[in-house]
Write the structure tokens for this entry.
Amino acid sequence: MNGSCALTTFDNPYNPFEQFSDWFLFDVEKGYNTCAYLDRIAHTSDQFSEEENNQEIERAIDEIIRYDFMNIYKKVKRTKTTKADKT
């Protein structure tokens, strides 16, 4: 995941940025298929820049959350760590 935000469910204990494999396995086992759902809603293209695709993905995430009648989804943002934070 290259963007600064991601779509996840409230019950998924894994970080989709740092633990994607575990996050994805949990998501699919629960039957959410969040990546496939996001792919159906986001209108991305190879003709768009990475920034344009990231903006479209965030728009799609916001749309999914807006119409989430079961209230299972949330948007998470990537936290940027600096070299000073690691010491």
